[in-house]
Amino acid sequence: MRPAHALIDLDALRHNYQLAKGLSGRRAFAVLKANAYGHGALECAQALADDADAFAVACIEEALELRAAGINQPILLLEGWFEASELPLIVEHQLWSVVHHHRQVQDLLGAQLGAPLHIWLKLDSGMHRVGFEPAEYASTWQQLERSQNVASLTSMTHFSRADEPATGRTEEQLATFKRATQNLNGPTSLCNSPGVLAWPQAHGDWLRPGIMLYGVTPFEFDQDIAARLRPVMQLQSKVIAVRELPTGEPIGYGSRFITQRPTRVGVVAMGYADGYPRHAVDGTPVLVDGQRSQIIGRVSMDMLTLDLTDLPQSGLGSDVLLWGEGLSASEVARHAGTIAYQLFCNLNRVPRRFISSSSSFST
Ligand SMILES: *Cc1c(COP(=O)(O)O)cnc(C)c1O
Description:
Number of helices: 11
Distance between the termini: 14 Å
Helix content: 25-40%
Strand content: 15-25%
Radius of gyration: 23 Å
Largest sheet: 9 strands, mixed
Bound molecules: pyridoxal-5'-phosphate
CATH architecture of the largest domain: Alpha-Beta Barrel
Shape: elongated
CATH superfamily of the largest domain: Alanine racemase
Number of strands: 19
């Protein structure tokens, strides 16, 4: 079989969730949107079923997949419903929902529902993507509070720069949130991963960690708590061909790389069809048998090429780690002009193999 695969360590996932939750002692979602950031939402939900207070996803399609597989924990729809026709399904499957737009308020107030809904009312505290304006927030809250279709209300907002503590933006957003919600009774939820890790004063009642659950720091700098995260994914493959080239020979499409010395080239079964970034520059790090090597030449659809000249012990059949323990997805992402979030979400074709202290299985 082709050796490319993503090994998913479900014990590490549980460890990271407990780390997040332990920071506040209150409740914490496990954010499983986008197929758990490429890690396999169903398996991740099952692994966290005994630990997580609730799950969060981007849309009802993602929630219904979890329900169909027998996941009974509360699930929050982070953007609510996109069409009013989803409301009966939200009731039937006992989903929790964000409300971020007037249209959703009108849908909810006008609906005939079998049961009232748990609503997370989103404030735009400064990110300016979705949410109600501070000036209209309290009145919208009160409107929903009076509705028979609303079982509970939680106030919620989202930070745009919590990973950049020096900017002052999070303090501004927090102050806006406090002003807009000061006369409202109900639980609060503000923190994504950088909020969880660096903004204890904003923790509120419900944390919403995402990327940190998968063992990746959201920061560009070293941070003590983030250093305790364990990477969940090891993206692995093997060297499937080796060749020796003299100086001055081009490698791969477009001859992007020209050998500067007699070069031993390793070809790896991993390409952009697997989700490895095509934009990875020459010099992008890769581990071969645990040792640092680097990409030379353009990444192609099914293969990429490495410089093995300084790793004479490695060759055909050597183990290759594209990211994981000892080489963070963030470091690779920096060499491809993106972030670890996108590398994970782009994973494609590679089978996932799951390991956990209680079992080991593949999909
Ligand atoms: C995706 C998402 C999160 C998780 O963000 P991370 O940066 O991955 O921790 C939290 N809240 C909302 C509303 C989200 O959409």
